[in-house]
Amino acid sequence: MFTISDSVHINAPIERCFLLSTNIELVGRTLGMKPIEGKTSGLIEGGDRLLWAGWKFGFPQMHESLITKYERPTFFQDTMGRGRFRRFQHDHHLYFMDGRTVLNDKLRFTMPFGWLGGLVARFILVPHISRLLRKRMRLLKRVAESDEWRQYLPETSNLKKSASRTSA
User: Fold this and answer.
1) How far is C-alpha 130 from the chain's CA centre?
2) Which of 166, 142, 21, 19 is nearest to 91 (CA)?
3) Domain extent listing, the chain
4) Please, what is the average pLDDT of the chain?
């Protein structure tokens, strides 16, 4: 099994960071794939299913994401339903510390094809996925810390309502 972890400190409220992390359009910008089936726009929630399609390394790819855990605004998990990996799971942890939101992501995956799959994972996929994760975190940080977040979360009244519920 391969594990990739990364984190970023974001100068924005945890609720905003969480919702931006669940925005399908923002996810698609860093994945380089498009949602074609299941929930294809808006914000993901527990139990949602998305089928992503695109091209990676010159090959057509399909990846089904199932939202297997969802604890707004601190945690959600997506697990591969079907795709090129033998197993793929991505945990998104958020917490508030010293006036900032910390986003900590942890990805775990295994490959088919035994030792050959392991070589491909180690030398191609781990560096590639690490770059995608870092790109995603930079994008979330930039959007959350600027007014750009309003393009993705236009209903600020829902943010305020849910923030007051989580702080009660």
Assistant:
1) 13
2) 21
3) 2-167
4) 91
